[in-house]
Amino acid sequence: MKVAKSDIEIKEAFSKLFPHAIINNDLKKLQDSPVVLKKAEQAKKFLRNFNYK
Amino acid sequence: MHLPSYQILETADDSSQYKFVSIGPKGEIPKAVVFRLLYPEENIYNVALVDFLKDGTESDTNVSNNGDMREILATVTQVLTAYSEVFPDRKIFFTGSDEEGKRMAVYHRAIREYYSVLQKIFLIEGYINENVKEPFNPANNYQAFLVKRK
C-alpha cells in the first residue's frame, strides 16, 4: 500500500486512481456548504460521548 | 468488487471532493462525495453524499429515485477505497441523512452483502448508539459506521 507523504505524491496518486477526472477547485466550496456543515455538526453531535479530539 | 459504477468526472486539488453524475429515468443528477475533517487528533473525517439540485443548492436528503442506487453505492465505495489508499491513516465516519433511518438501512445492507470483500480492505466499526461501538457484526444493526484502511 502506498502512503502518500507530499502534496505532489497525493496528486499523482489520485490522478492514477481517477485518470479521467479534471481538477475543478470550485468543488472546494462544498467543504463549507450548508449541507456539508450540517452533516459535520450532526456527526459531532452523535459522537460527542466518545470524547474524540 | 467489480460492480458497475460511475466515472469520477471532477475532483479538487485538496482531494476532498469527487463529482459524478447519476443517470436514470429522472435524468442526469450531479452528485459529489465530500470529506470534511471532524477530529484532527483522531484523524476522523466525515463523508457526505451531496446532490446538486436544479435550483443551484445542494442537498443530502434529496430522494432522486433514479433507479441506480447500486451504481451510486459502488461509486461511493470506489471513492472510499481510493481515498483510504492515499490516506490510510484517516478514519471515515458516515451515517444516513434521513431521520427514518432508510439510508442507514441501505448502507447496512450493502456492507453486509459485500462484507467478505470489504473486510479485506477496511476495518469497519459500527455505532450501536451514541455511546457504544463495536467491530462490524453483520447480525447487528447500527446507527453509523467508521471505516479505516487495513
Task: Describe it.
The complex is a heterodimer of chains A (53) and B (150). Chain A is mainly alpha-helical and 53 residues long. Helix content of chain A is 47%, strand content 4%. Chain A contains two helices and one strand, in the order H-E-H. Chain A has helices at residues 7-17, 34-47, and one strand at 22-23. Chain A is elongated, with a radius of gyration of 16 Å. The model of chain A has no long low-confidence stretch (mean pLDDT 88). The mean pLDDT of chain B is 92. Chain B contains three helices and nine strands. Chain B has helices at residues 69-86, 102-113, 115-121; strands at residues 10-11, 17-24, 27-39, 44-52, 58-59, 91-94, 122-127, 133-135, 144-149. In chain B, strands 1, 2, 3, 4, 5, 6, 7, 8 and 9 form a nine-stranded mixed β-sheet that branches. Chain B is of the alpha+beta class and 150 residues long. The A-B interface holds A 1-4, 10-11, 13-14, 17-18, 20-28, 30-31, 33-36, 38-40, 42-44, 46-50, 52-53 and B 7-19, 32, 34, 36, 38-42, 44, 46, 48, 50, 57-60, 82, 85-88, 93, 95, 97, 127, 130-131, 133, 143-144, 149.
Quick summary of this structure?
The complex is a heterodimer of chains A (53) and B (150). By secondary structure, chain A is mainly alpha-helical. Chain A has two helices and one strand; from the N terminus they run H-E-H.
Helix content class of chain B: 10-25%
What fraction of residues of chain A sit in β-strands? under 5%
Work out the number of β strands of chain B.
9
Tell me the β content of chain B.
35-45%
**Ends apart, CA distance between termini of chain B:** 17 Å
The major beta sheet of chain A can be summarized as:
none
Oligomer: heterodimer
* Number of DSSP strand runs of chain A: 1
| Total of helices of chain B | 3
